Amino acid sequence: QSMDSTLHYIHNDSDLSTNSSFSPEEERKSKVQDVVPQALLDQYLSMTDPSRAQTVDTEIAKHCAYSLPGVALTLGRQNWHCLKDTYETLASDMQWKVRRTLAFSIHELAVILGDQLTAGDLVPVFNGFLKDLDEVRIGVLKHLHDFLKLLHVDKRREYLYQLQEFLVTDNSRNWRFRAELAEQLILLLDLYSARDIYDYLRPIAFSLCADKVSSVRWISYKLVSEMVKKLYMASTPTFVVDLMNELVEKFCRCHKWSGRQTFVFICQVKCLFIYIPFVSGV
């Protein structure tokens, strides 16, 4: 019965508001709910105390972070105020494994909380993870599409300027990071307009096509071919023509055989030759 009640609130689209300042008494009441026994919730919240983590179990904060989406689902969106402070404490934990755990599940928590609470409480944490260690950044990168699709269109466009930063990693040999970026960009094509794709995603795609690791390049070929298809279906044909012309100049007419081979591979992925008549001089 409690779970049915929780799910009812989770799918309720009513607006929710949160207070940013509480008195000590209000702070205590803000942690009170009627879904699970209060003592059980208090015990869970107390386990995120940094001093307890150092004296009892160094892994306890990581376990709490792993369980937090399940706790949030059980309590429901209406009781997020009980977990908000705990979530922020875990998100700023000194152990990168704790932050990494939260980074991998932030998209699931966003589904539970809804767009309003996500924009107010999760987006700042998400932005912090984007600037964290690669071990943490990979968590948000692997589910970048899942998180951004839940945001408002205007908020989503703000991240176009930060996608380029994923090309830079702490270790340049971490090619799987760039491969994951290419995979996510393929999914992100459905979230952005033709102009945004041409202005922001195209330069990243061309950079990935010239990567030193073949696995990254192969995924990038699929990315470029999907990009051409997306721009071809757009109402403005200018973007696909300009993109095809750039492909011809950069790869088809490249003085290196590897560049010309890249053009062939890109065409091979999606039968790109059906778009070539739009380009003059090929």
CATH topology call of the largest domain = Leucine-rich Repeat Variant
- How large is the count of helical segments? 15
Low-confidence stretches: 1-22
CATH homologous superfamily title of the largest domain: Leucine-rich Repeat Variant
Protein name: PP4R1 phosphatase
Keywords: Repeat
GO cellular component, one term: cytoplasm
InterPro entries: ARM-like, ARM-type_fold, PP2A_Regulatory_Subunit_A
Notes on the protein architecture:
The protein has 282 residues and is mainly alpha-helical. It has two domains: 25-151, Leucine-rich Repeat Variant, CATH 1.25.10.10; 163-281. The protein has helices spanning 2-10, 24-29, 38-46, 50-55, 60-75, 84-91, 96-130, 134-142, 144-148, 153-157, 175-188, 194-209, 214-232, 238-252, 257-270. Helix 8 runs parallel beside helix 11 (175-188), helix 11 (175-188) runs parallel beside helix 13 (214-232) and helix 12 (194-209) packs antiparallel against helix 13 (214-232). The chain is elongated.
Q: Any chance you could write out the topology, listing elements then pairs?
A:
Layout: H1 2-10, H2 24-29, H3 38-46, H4 50-55, H5 60-75, H6 84-91, H7 96-130, H8 134-142, H9 144-148, H10 153-157, H11 175-188, H12 194-209, H13 214-232, H14 238-252, H15 257-270
Helix pairs in contact: 5-7, 6-7, 7-8, 8-11, 11-13, 12-13, 13-14, 13-15, 14-15
GO cellular component, one term: cytoplasm
GO molecular function: protein phosphatase regulator activity
Region (Disordered): 11-32
